[in-house]
Amino acid sequence: MKNNQPDISLIRKYVNGELDATAMYKLERQAENDPLLMDVIRGMENGEQAEDEGRLVEIDQLINRRIEQRKVQKLTPWKLWAAAASLILISAVTGILVYNKPSGNMHTADLAKTQNNIPAPVVGEQNAKIESGIQYESAPLDRIDTTTVVKAKVPVSVKAPVGARIPSTKTPPFGLNDSSSIAALSSAHQNKATAIEYDPLKEAPVSVGYGAVRNSPVITARMMKKSEDTINRALAGRVAGINTELNEVTVVSASPAKSGKGEPVVGWDKYKLYLEQNAVTNSARAGTVILAFKVDGNGKPIQIRIVKGINDAANQKAEELLVGGSKWTSTEKEITLKIKFRSSFVLP
Amino acid sequence: MQATELFHKQFKKIFLPCRSMNWFSNSKKSDPASDELLLKQYLKTGDLAVLGKLFQQHASMVYYVCNRYLQDSEKSKDAVMQIFEELIVKVGKQEIRQFASWLYVLSRNYCLMQLRSGKKMQHVPFEEFVEFPDMEHQVDHEGKEKQLTTLEKCLEKLPDGQKQSIRLFFLDEKCYKDIVECTGFSLNDVKSYIQNGKRNLKICMDKNREK
Q1: What ipTM was estimated for this complex?
Q2: pTM for the full model?
Q3: Do A63 and B52 touch (CB under 8 A)?
Q4: What is the pLDDT of residue A75?
Q5: Low-confidence ranges of chain B (pLDDT < 50)
Q6: Number of domains observed in the structure of chain A
Q7: What would the pLDDT profile of A162-198 be if each residue is shown by its tens digit?
Q8: How far separated are the first and last CA of chain A, in Å rounded?
């Protein structure tokens, strides 16, 4: 009920012609001097009763809704402060949890719990069969983002000759097999629980050294220094020229080129350095060995022949250096490699 | 003496509001005291529910005023809500003595602005914007006889329809319907004649007073 409802009723009666002449005149006379009343009468005359009453009901509802809306919006200050404090608290807790939680994509493997055996690598002239394994989870290779840098953290420091060939395989994902690095790694940590973290979503064969990398042009293998003495001892005298720390080795464009002339995957600079450091003969005679070979689909030198030699020992050493060195980019052409040997012979 | 009484009677009937028939006076709920109370309460607490209650008591009036100018029920409904929003903003900024009258002016101005902005300005009778002054105090006893004569002369100068309608409405106290029946004019014509006749009489009286 409205305050002015009775007057509205009266006006409605007037508009409907339900008032007698006196009442009508009374209202009209009043309206002549009251613009408000006149406007209301005329406004009522402009519309239809049923429609107008419907509109008035709607207006009532709209006003009530408007009032309710304001009530919802209106919060007392202490409630606002409480809400703000709660939000900050929740944010802080969430932040701490997220910060402390290991990444969902990272998995920890225990080297002590070996499942997959890594083939024993041949290091120098000695074979050291080391059983080790890396627990890992496989992920489809097609999920690998070729632009992603994969970081594999291995808590070990490895000294290996630059250019030393470390063949990689599909499994285990790090490609840590058949290498002096792995030998050192495994021997140094045979009985230790060593954590290896990697991202399964970005799983790819990661090679230490110059091993091939599948579907990943840029790979970073981060090796964390640990038990250096042990590794050095393991490698001492077995691998020539162990003087390069592979704390972090980056292999760029590991995928061999399918065309063009063959060249070491690691690049000529590193490969030359590798040869310079390792092309040492015990004999008193220094010289040059020229090798000719082809490269198979895996980048491995095949059909090696001596074009020009020094002696059997040097020739064999040259072959070993070639085979044990970097992979080569695929080519159908025969490659000729010239290795200069220096003599380590010291007169007694 | 008799002429003076007749003048008073005629003058009051034409120009003065019928004070005993205040539109709100016989309203059961449109109590100015109640309005004032609610208004004070709202200004004190800022509780929109209070203002909403106050506005709802006058929502019908606002709606019909809007419908008088906008002549569209849907637009009038929207206008009522907009006026409510304006009310929220303005109610604390102005001194309001009589809420209903103030709200009426607010509503009418809003509607006129709407019409103006929509370039649909229509004719609004002049007298609806001009309140006639209370002329009772301006008339001294010496001039009353003269003014009565002037009124009679001015009335005679009005066009026939206005003159007839004014006489029937103010002097004979006939309602519009009766005037329609007596004169054969349409209802709208009668209303128009009365409005225009009042205006012309006032102009005529003012001119004669200046002379």
Answers
A1: 0.73
A2: 0.43
A3: yes
A4: 56
A5: 18-28, 120-121, 123, 125-136
A6: 2
A7: 444 444 444 444 444 444 444 444 444 444 433 344 4
A8: 125
Q: How far is CA B138 from the centre of its chain?
A: 21
Cα A8 to Cα A37: distance, rounded to the nearest angstrom: 10
Q: pLDDT by residue (tens digit) across B128-181?
A: 444 444 444 555 666 677 777 888 888 888 899 998 898 888 888 888 888 998
Q: How far apart are CA A70 and CA A68, in angstroms?
A: 5
What domains are defined for chain B? Answer: 21-127 (1.10.1740.10), 135-210 (1.10.10.10)
- Spell out the alpha helix ranges (H) of A255-341: 268-278, 312-324
Residue of B nearest to A33 (CA): B17
Kindly state the DSSP code that residue A180 receives in the 8-state scheme.
H
Of A11, A36, A60, the CB nearest to B56: A60
Instruction: Flag whether residue A46 sits within 8 Å of chain B, measured between CB atoms.
Output: yes
- The shortest CB-CB distance from A55 to any of B30, B73, B104 is to B73
Q: Please report how the helices B59-70 and A5-16 are oriented relative to each other, as an axis angle in degrees rounded to 10.
A: 40
Tell me how many residue pairs between chain A and chain B have CB atoms under 8 A apart.
161
- Residues in chain A with CB shorter than 8 Å from the CB of B132 are 33
Verify that A196 and A125 share a domain, yes or no. yes
Provide the domain limits for residue A326: 268-343
Give the end of a domain, one of A255, A290, A317: A255
In whole angstroms, what is the distance from residue B23 CA to residue B30 CA? 10
Domain for residue A46, yes or no?
Answer: no
Start-to-end CA distance of chain B, whole Å, equals 24
The set of residues, in sequence order, having a beta carbon less than 8 Å from that of B120 and lying 6+ positions away, is: none
Cα-based distances in Å from A192 to A129, A136, A195, B88, B183: 18, 17, 9, 77, 120
Instruction: Indicate the pLDDT class of residue A2, thresholds 50, 70 and 90.
Output: very low
